[in-house]
Structures are given as C-alpha cells and as structure tokens.
Amino acid sequence: MAPNEANRAGGFSGAVDRATDSTTFERVARAGHVMSGFVHLLVAYIIIQLAFGNGGDADQSGALGTLASKPGGRFVLWVAAVAFVAMALWRLAETVLGPHVTEGSQGDPEGPSLMDRAKAFGLALVYFAFAFSAVQFARGAGKSSGQQNAGLSARLMESGAGKTLLIVVALVAIAIGGYHVYKGASKNFCDDLKGQPSKLVEPLGVIGYVAKGLVIAGAGVLVIVAVLKSDPSKATGLDGAVKTLGSAPYGQVLLVLAGLGIAAYGVYSFVMARNARM
C-alpha cells in the first residue's frame, strides 16, 4: 500500500476507533439489543395468538405494527429507530476494526478474520433494515413484509435470472438459519458474553438461537418451494414459515413451542444489552 493510502486508511480506522471509545455511543448501541428483544417478544406473542386461532403477521412488520397501534407506540418506534441505527453503526465499526472493539488487544490477538468482518457487515445491514422499518411504522406508512415479499417474488419469477436470484437468497437464508441453530446447540453464543453465563442465561440462548434458526431456515425452504411451484404466495418470509408450521400435524403445539422459543431469544436479547462484548 502506498504511504498516502496507508495514511488515509489509518486515519479512517483511527476515527472509527475514537468513535467507539464513546460511552454514550456504546450505551445507545446496546439499546439496540433491548429493542430487538421487545420485537422478538411481540413476534412470539403473535405466534402464540395464531396458535389459538387469532390473526396477525408473525414477523417484524407484524410486531412493529402491533406496537404502532398502542398508545405511545409510535414514540417508542422512533426511539427504537435511533437505537437500531446506533447498533448498525457499531457493527460497521466492527467491520473496519474487528469484533469486540472496546477490548482492544484482548479481543482477538490474531486479528479479525474476513468472516468476522463479513458477519459484522451483515448485521449492520440487518439493523439498518430494522431502523428503516421502525421509521416507516412510526410515520404510519408501514406495510406487511409478507405481502411485500410475495409481490417482489412474483416479479422476480417472471424471468429465469429472477428465479435464480430467489434461489440464491433462499439458500443464504437457510445457511443463516443453520448457523443460528449451530450457534445455539454448540453454545458458541457464550463467546459473545462477558464472563461465564449463568445457569438461566445459557438455556435461554440455546433455545432462542435454535428456534430462531429453524424459523429462518423454514422461510428459506418456502422460497425454494415457491420458485419450484411458481407460486409467489408461498414466499412470504418468516410469517409464511410460521403459518406453514401451524398447518402441519400438531400445528397448535408446534406454534406454541415456536412462540416460546422466539420469546426465549427476546429475553436473551435483554441479557445481551447488559453483558454483550462490544
């Protein structure tokens, strides 16, 4: 790298490093975990409602819509949007500097891997998407993500390239879901926490990650089914995966278990807000 390029890179990394030294920035970013916890608990509530015959969208848009309809809900959504943006920016900082930036040399003595940076960047995109959705619902312009997914899938299915893109997206979703299941079953999530998790926290993480992973993977499988059957109505994301689960034998029991699993992840998110390595 040329000296001028090295100086520019160093200057940018140094600015990012100084930004993450801000206690206020870290606290607002940690609030992203709190808001994520609330969203997952609302999704869990909707799933259990579905188990007992009530309607609703069992995904992020359903949760945000439910919150927006409550007194003071739109104000909470604006707060959530700020917290999600802060968390997204923190993940971008981790993309540049590596994970656990506040730990300095105590984080990873070998330096961050390309996979570490890719995961941080992916999470940044997820939290920016959360923030955008929160703003939309706070403004009263939120829409069902399931309907949007079906509409987009219908347009993509009109061409061979579009179908290929859908299959790729589905495979990525299945891989992400599988990673969540692995992370929960192997208890690798413990590495994200400061100290040794308590006997209560550990099962929350296991159940939460596995449940969330299965739902995400299920959504990916449904997209593949939708492409193979040329039926975009099946490609409705997490909501479609949950409702397909409900239509299976013993669907009511499965929905209750799924709801409890997502709720466990929501509670675990509150633990992350306090104990996550940042």
TrEMBL record:
The chain crosses the membrane at residues 34-52, 72-90, 120-141, 161-182, 203-228, 248-271. It holds the Pfam family DUF1206. The keyword Chloroplast does not apply. The keyword Methyltransferase does not apply. Residues 31-96, 120-185, 207-274 form the DUF1206 domain. Keywords: Membrane, Transmembrane, Transmembrane helix. It comes from the Bacteria. This is DUF1206 domain-containing protein. It comes from Rhodococcus oxybenzonivorans.
